[in-house]
Amino acid sequence: MLTDHVTNHPLDLTAPPQSSTQARPQQDSRSTAGRPPSSKVPVRSDPGTILLHWTLVTAIFVSLLTGLRLSADAEGAWFSKLFEPILPQGEIWTWHYVSAVFVLALIFAYAAYMSLARLKRRISSKKIVVLTLPASNKLRIAAVSVIAYWILFASVIALSATGVLLYMGYGGIWVTVHFTAAVVVLTYIGTHVVLHYCYGGLEQLLRLFRPQSLRRYPGMARRPLAIAVALGAVIVAAAVTLDFGTRSDLVVARADELPTLDGNLDDALWQAAKPVFVKTQQGSNLDGAGVSTVEIRAVQVGDKIAFGFRWEDPTRSLKRHPLIKTEDGWRMLNNRADISDETAYYEDKFSVAFSTSDVFGGGGATHMGPKPLDNKPAAFHGRGLHYTTDGSLVDVWQWKAARGGMLGKVDDMWFGTPVEPTEAQVAGKARYSAGYTSDDGKAFYIYNYIGDPETHYHGTVGVRRLPIDYKKTAALMGNIDLSVNTSEDQGAHWWMLEEESVPYSLDKDAEIPVGTVLPGVLIQGEYSGNRADLQGGSKWQDGYWTLEVIRDMDTGYEKDLAMKDGLFMWMSVFDHNQTRHTRHSRPVRLTFNKTGN
């Protein structure tokens, strides 16, 4: 990208007009010696420039395209979606992170090469002075190119610095800065090509396909390209070593008694367990910043393991698709329930994923894009699917506040090889989740609404059950405030038990006045099978959720991972949204074999 506009040209300032009395200079006979006057020697570049240029171009394009795919996933994204037809799909996290490291290494390698080969004049700020002088158009274009180069340098540095911050879990304003720097780099690519074409036409662009030996200058290193490549390799190795060498270990403490599952971490065993803090970011809501720090503790008690989680969430949200009676009938409150992408009327959730692999994207199980699987249905929301491609398993625990989370249940699930879709899923009438599904068994929650396939939850809906006493049900729900940014009361029940309700009937419906709000979740029966392996206790207080979870060290079930040394963990926070959880890039390693607490 840093090709040379001017090689050995002097400062070609525009000369003043000559008077008619001045003698014209005689033509230099040497200018025509050896070849016809009209012939031109093709413009060329040295092999080092060509190699580093195209390697850097490739790395930048991979980084930009994968980054735009991640950006297109953001709620309200529009600019990055303009590139949808050319954006990659699938497991792009690895490509994005690896290409970003190579961009950084290549920038340093390129800078070193220009210095060692005495080619720094290509980006010398002294060229900019010609913009204040009556210089030729070529020199002006070269000066503008130098300015563009330095803007590129600043943007790449900003991209790298903010990329590291995002990778470490710092979101908020850094997401905006990172995106802005990426747009600047994207704009530079087009500007760069145009400037080169204006400077020397097609020949100037083709020089990067025509190698010639590097000219020797006094003080030039003997092998500048080899040294520059070696420097780039050192930077890549240092980045990888620093990343893997600074990841957090969650050391599992030992205790004699299990904790009381009350959503408090004040038991003595929790105080003996050293916590790990993980920053997560780019989630929906969370006061608009999209960030939440998660505290994690772990304790082994015999053949059981207990985890304590505490995370930031400004509101206690339990309103998962509540129902409200209108003059037209019952309506289910939502903003995007039809595409499984609710970000308003939903419950708080928390998820932890375990994997034997530390591959990016949650153990390689996160695949982005409208249709990452060519031979399978797309997700309704078009954001991607969870599955693995190598036969591996990711064990997923998901706490759902209104669907049993406040009643001591944590759903046991997994990511694995994509399952075959049903006829309804192929027809687009049912949600396809690829490799994301629950353990064998049964949960005790169902939904209290029946959607109309034509209105897709944006019109009236059917109701499965009505309260025996709607006033009592309303009292259990506490202060009914339909603002999505309001916390529900402590002890409020935004679910309805089977014994508190009866099957829907017109007569019972007629007893309930317009404006009545009912829970969208029904609790009936019991959890059963391997899906019931997890027991929990949770509580929200002062802007934090606390969750305690107990499970057998090894359940013996094929879809559960045994708790052992070296497992990797990823955390996700959902603030009243369905799928737009926070992102956690660097896994935490579960460790049993270290001495300590």
TrEMBL record:
Name the residue ranges with Polar residues bias.
16-32
Q: What is its main location?
A: membrane
User: Where is region (Disordered) located?
Assistant: 1-44
At the top level of its lineage, which domain of life is listed? Bacteria
- How does it sit in the bilayer? Multi-pass membrane protein
* Keywords carried by this UniProt record: Cell membrane, Electron transport, Heme, Iron, Membrane, Metal-binding, Transmembrane, Transmembrane helix, Transport
Pfam families attached to this UniProt entry: EB_dh, Ni_hydr_CYTB
Q: Which residues cross the membrane?
A: 50-72, 92-113, 146-167, 173-199, 220-242
Localization terms from the record: Cell membrane
Task: Tell me one GO molecular function of this protein.
Answer: metal ion binding
What CDD domains is this protein classified in? DOMON_like_cytochrome (cd09625)
Could you give one GO CC term from the UniProt record?
Answer: plasma membrane
**Is Heme given among the entry's keywords?**
yes
Swiss-Prot/TrEMBL GO biological process terms: respiratory electron transport chain
**What are the Cytochrome c-552/DMSO reductase-like haem-binding domain coordinates in residue numbering?**
267-586
- Protein name, UniProt field: Cytochrome b subunit of formate dehydrogenase
Which organism's genome codes for this protein? Roseibium marinum
